[in-house]
Design brief:
single chain, mainly alpha, Growth Hormone, Chain: A, 16 helices, about 80% helix
């Protein structure tokens, strides 16, 4: 098999890894609002909606909290021991976590559900490992496009995960479907991916690195990230960007349920439309155009549209307005997200890409924790706060990017200069 053919197979496999991981996330964010807030749901929280929203925020946030401690460790371990063994560990751990989640929901054990979601978060470092593996097989011209394909996988996961979560948790579809059924289905998918990884995946890391590992690597990664002269400003932009993104997106299903009275199945269908738009944009628009655009321009030109879309969605009064706003959001994010990730990657050395992606994952996890855990209380004040707050943070990250990178983009982004920029 030629090198090019092997590379295409690796790309396809990494897309499947991201797909499996984010399908699980889509199942969770679709199922949990109904589990905790709908009459007859499985939550023991009682009738106090404000209290239930706080519990929802904590339940959503415990996953990225686990990811915060796990991603940096696993990303660095993949630089030391290879991508394949770490992918096997993370897939197996996530599989176990989803089995425990299904059991906890079935038994109405909220504490066990919290524990299982924390475990799933710890092993969610497979995203950073997949990103690092994608960088391993990419050159400077193909890096943005290949990372855009991983973003497309995230989009596809939102086509599949939320609708599957909504349908499989609806007993009116099949009498034995419950809120735990989607978690059993995700466990089966992860089991299949574990077998594929063991049998078919070939290692992409050519030169292992040497480093020390400790359980506080996530905190040290963030401290180290903001101490790096070439990266700290990029990481600051990333932190604000992620906070706005997830404050809005993690409470979008709750917003649809509480304001528009959507059922879980209808929430899933809406998120499926969102994922379809993101996927089509990433594959047919972002990937072909990315080779002719500087990554920093992808961020600079498109992020204001994403902020505007989130604000418009918060004022939507009809279904068509919801769909129009979310179309604008995912179209513009399809450019802004890989543009920012590529900008960060271009500042790092090639032999530290796993660590750099681990840093981005740690920062993303921390900011997502803060957004999700605070979002429940904010949503209880008004269902519009999380959307408008997310729009403000996205706009703030764009302003920060333009101020801090005005000069740096012409003097320090040497790798990007190899492509034909607009």
């Amino acid at each position: 098999m030629s090198k090019q053919s092997r590379s295409k197979l690796v790309v396809a496999y990494l897309i499947l890894i991201i797909l499996a991981d984010f399908i699980g996330l889509g199942v969770s964010v679709t199922t949990f609002p109904a589990l905790l807030l709908k009459p007859g749901g499985a939550s023991p929280a009682g009738p106090d909606e404000a209290r239930q929203l706080v519990i929802l925020g904590l339940l959503l946030g415990i996953y990225p909290l686990g990811q915060f401690f796990g991603a940096a460790i696993l990303g660095k371990l993949s630089d030391m021991r290879g991508r394949k063994p770490l992918l096997l560990w993370t897939l197996t751990g996530t599989l176990a976590a989803f089995v425990v989640s299904a059991i906890a929901i079935r038994d109405g054990n909220l504490l066990l559900l919290f524990v299982s979601r924390a475990i799933a978060g710890v092993f969610a470092g497979n995203v950073a490992i997949a990103q690092a593996s994608m960088v391993d097989i990419s050159d400077e011209r193909s890096k943005s496009g290949n990372l855009a394909l991983l973003n497309a996988a995230m989009g596809i996961s939102w086509i599949i995960g939320p609708p599957v979560g909504g349908i499989l948790s609806d007993s009116s579809v099949v009498s034995w479907f419950t809120y735990s059924t989607p978690f059993w289905a995700e466990a089966c998918l992860l089991a299949a991916m574990s077998v594929v990884t063991l049998v078919l995946f070939k290692e992409t890391l050519t030169t292992p690195a040497k480093a020390e590992i400790n359980v506080f690597a996530g905190l040290q990664q963030i401290r180290s990230a903001f101490a790096l002269p070439k990266l700290r400003l990029a990481f600051l932009v990333w932190a604000v960007f992620v906070a706005g993104w997830w404050l809005f997106e993690s409470y979008l299903p709750t917003y649809l349920q509480q304001v528009f009275h959507y059922s879980p199945a209808r929430v899933g269908a809406f998120l499926g439309f969102m994922g379809t738009t993101f996927t089509v944009t990433s594959i047919f628009v972002v990937k072909p155009l990315s080779a002719r655009m500087r990554p920093e321009n992808m961020m600079r030109w498109f992020l204001p549209g994403a902020a505007l879309a989130v604000a418009l969605l918060s004022f939507a009064e009809a279904t068509w307005q919801l769909h129009a706003a979310i179309f604008l959001f995912v179209f513009t994010m399809g450019f802004a997200l890989p543009g920012l990730l590529t900008t960060i990657s271009n500042f790092a050395n090639k032999d530290t890409q796993g660590q750099t992606m681990g840093m981005t994952a740690s920062i993303q996890a921390l900011m997502t924790v803060l957004a999700m855990m605070s979002g429940g209380s904010l949503f209880s004040m008004s269902p519009y706060v999380t959307g408008l707050g997310g729009a403000g943070l996205l706009l703030g990250s764009w302003l920060l990017f333009n101020v801090t990178f005005r000069e740096r983009t012409t003097t320090e982004l040497a790798p990007a200069a190899a492509t034909k920029g607009a």
